[in-house]
Amino acid sequence: MNQLAGRIGVVTGGASGIGRAIAIALAAEGATVLIGDVDEPGGLETCRIIEANEGAAHFWPLDVSRENDWKRLVAMTKEKFKALHILVNNAAICISRPLLEMTFDSWRRQMAINLDGLFLGTKAALPLMTESGGGSIVNLSSVAGLRGVPGMSGYCASKGGVRMFTKAIALECAQARNNIRVNSVHPGSIETPIWLKLGNDGALPAADARRNADVMADIRAAGATATPVGHSGVPEDIAAGVLYLVSDGARFVTGTELVIDGGVMAG
Ligand SMILES: NC(=O)c1ccc[n+]([C@@H]2O[C@H](COP(=O)([O-])OP(=O)(O)OC[C@H]3O[C@@H](n4cnc5c(N)ncnc54)[C@H](O)[C@@H]3O)[C@@H](O)[C@H]2O)c1
Asked: Which has the minimum average pLDDT: 115-119, 160-164, 184-188, 200-204?
């Protein structure tokens, strides 16, 4: 299938986990995908996977919390590709720390990436998307944007903000009649490296394959216990939802929240 042929899309955080799966899924449907990330080796590896499947992908160094990075990315997109139809604001960090142990610097860093990044990226992309005749913006929130999680006050606050920012911008776009739809996706427990970074202020701990494998095994077991269907999800489960939201089949869908969580929010 080639349902996104001719479309140009930006996926932030496409160097790892869910963002990588989204980039692969969009490219498999014919989109040209620009991967914006601070992790250059990871981003280039995503490009390599896409190109090995005859898709089109490019890496662009991007710190989503820096306005100038966004301006450069959008200017390059306009110059090189002449259009922008899809923006997936996926990059985020998760810092797990009780409030009294959370420094203001850590709180601010998480907000800067998870929430300022959304503001900056959406603001930078909207004019080119409008010029391109419209498009679709998908923002990665979380079930932690729908309910509280102890030890994750900052992450929950940022993801709740993602949810409501999405709805407000969806209505602004609807009022502007610019043919841009804006939706949020709320994953439950998905097996990705984000879990290895939780206790390390959102950064990947020094490579220790055995320790990391042990942590992932614990995460898998915890995910299975906490998820009604009895197992965690995989990044492709989320990519399938994003693919729907950016497709023409979702042309009447805006301002909504797609929960993909194995039943967590049903109870
Ligand atoms: N994995 C889960 O269980 C889960 C659950 C709910 C929501 N989510 C959300 O899904 C999204 C993807 O998470 P993931 O699990 O794939 O995480 P991940 O850690 O595997 O990937 C995150 C990516 O974001 C990039 N990134 C971090 N800071 C950045 C910055 N300042 N600028 C640009 N890129 C930056 C990282 O380099 C990495 O490639 C996030 O928004 C996360 O909050 C994940």
From this structure: 200-204
Q: Is 223 in the pocket of ligand 1 (CB under 6 A)?
A: no
* Res. 199: pLDDT tops 80: no
Q: Which among 60, 70, 155, 195 is annotated as catalytic?
A: 155
- Number of C-alpha atoms within 13 angstroms, CB side, residue 195? 22
Give DSSP secondary structure letters for 48-81. HHHHHTT-EEEEEE--TT-HHHHHHHHHHHHHHH
* Mean pLDDT across 181-190: 98
Range of the domain at 24: 8-190+234-262
Q: What is the pLDDT of residue 211?
A: 75
Q: How many angstroms is it from 175 CA to the middle of ligand 1?
A: 31
CATH code for position 153: 3.40.50.720
Q: Report the nearest-CA residue for atom 43 of ligand 1.
A: 92
Asked, for residue 152, whether it belongs to a domain, the answer is yes
Ligand 1: which residue has its CA nearest to atom 37?
A: 39
Q: Is 244 a catalytic residue?
A: no
Query: Rounded to 5 degrees, what are φ and ψ at 50?
Result: -65, -45
User: Domain total for the chain?
Assistant: 1
